[in-house]
């Protein structure tokens, strides 16, 4: 009985572990019918981070074409040569292709696969065509095709440079050319597109930031933040992060330094900043103190000018001064043997002859304020 119970419990546990239902997918994940996965191009907790890189599927063979234009002289372009199915077109194109095979094939160009004529044009006969190249895949395919283009160009120029021998043979058996009317494209047109894979497989919204580069000896779709590529962005001491706006450097904030700049190229010691700020604060504080002192001094001066001085002037008009004078007079006069009354008794001035119209000018005393 107990054994059965344990068995059923174990079975139930197993079932709950192995069968995950769509409803149990973490936030951000999607149910693909078998399991919970991140949407294409995303990775990490809640599938929020775009992939750092993903591999490019490379074929065994790569092909490319090199466009060129050759002018065949001593032959007349006919109306029928506009039609690729006409006998004239067929005869001429066969002749041309065979000659190109002879010229271009060789040990130094095993990648040559033939010539594809695009059009025949009037003007003797102008041949617009593509040289087809096919090479084994290699990591350095770009350089390889560059070199192949150089070889093709050298061979074609050598062929068209041939000095004319006999116009009659040019009209029949062999092809003669105009060297100055021979043009070979500077670079090949690849018949493959690895960038397309990056665009298709990258996370939505980030497609424009992925490109093909070599990572760990293989082609991969990477972005500027992918570590280990030649094109990796240098964030100095910062960390690179691919954001919706593009790759960005996140600058570190250490205990000793602050970092900033597009690639965290600038930094400053915190102690230096604190020192400068402290010095500036000290200077400001000092300036403030001086200002306060000057202000209070000027206030005090103004106070005196406003109240002290007028009071002095006002005193002149008040009886106080004269009272004092009177006291002084009184005392002196009282002490003397001639009292005021005596004086008035003996001294009787007559004012009839005094010109009362005469004005008496007395200079008003000035108060000179001395600076403190
Ligand atoms: C080479 O080019 C042809 C078209 O000319 C194309 O069909 C073929 O898939 C290409 N092969 C490779 C390996 O890219
Ligand atoms: C091409 O046409 C010219 C006249 O327009 C003629 O003189 C010449 O013989 C022709 N050449 C050939 C190869 O038919
Ligand atoms: C080719 O060009 C020549 C001179 O420009 C002209 O006389 C001749 O009719 C042209 N031929 C065709 C087929 O267009
Ligand atoms: C094309 O070439 C064949 C034989 O190679 C010849 O019989 C025929 O007359 C040529 N046609 C033209 C239009 O030159
Ligand atoms: C250049 O052309 C001449 C004559 O067609 C040929 O003998 C020679 O091998 C060619 N040289 C190269 C490098 O293809």
Q: What does this entry look like structurally?
A:
By secondary structure, this protein is an alpha+beta fold. Among the domains are: 61-190, SEA domain (Alpha-Beta Plaits, 2-Layer Sandwich); 233-297, no CATH class. 38% of the residues lie in helices and 22% in strands. It has eight helices and 17 strands. It has helices at 2-18, 87-104, 141-161, 167-171, 194-201, 270-317, 319-335, 340-346, and strands spanning 30-31, 36-37, 42-43, 49-50, 53-55, 61-73, 112-122, 125-136, 176-177, 183-184, 189-190, 211-215, 218-222, 239-243, 246-250, 257-260, 266-269. The strands form six sheets. Strands 6, 7, 8, 9, 10 and 11 form a six-stranded antiparallel beta sheet that branches. The radius of gyration is 54 Å and the shape is elongated. The N and C termini lie far apart (112 Å). Mean pLDDT is 84; it is low at 13-19 and 320-329. Bound molecules: 2-acetamido-2-deoxy-beta-D-glucopyranose (NAG) (5 copies). One 2-acetamido-2-deoxy-beta-D-glucopyranose (NAG) is lined by residues 87-88, 91.
Query: In the CATH scheme, what's the topology name of the domain at 61-190?
Result: Alpha-Beta Plaits
Name the CATH superfamily assignment of the domain at 61-190.
SEA domain
In the predicted model, the low-confidence regions spanning at least 5 consecutive residues are 13-19, 320-329
Please, what is the average pLDDT? 84
What's the total count of β strands? 17
Ligands present? 2-acetamido-2-deoxy-beta-D-glucopyranose
Structural class: alpha+beta
Biggest sheet statistics? 6 strands, antiparallel
Through-space gap between termini: 112 Å
CATH C-level class of the domain at 61-190 is Alpha Beta
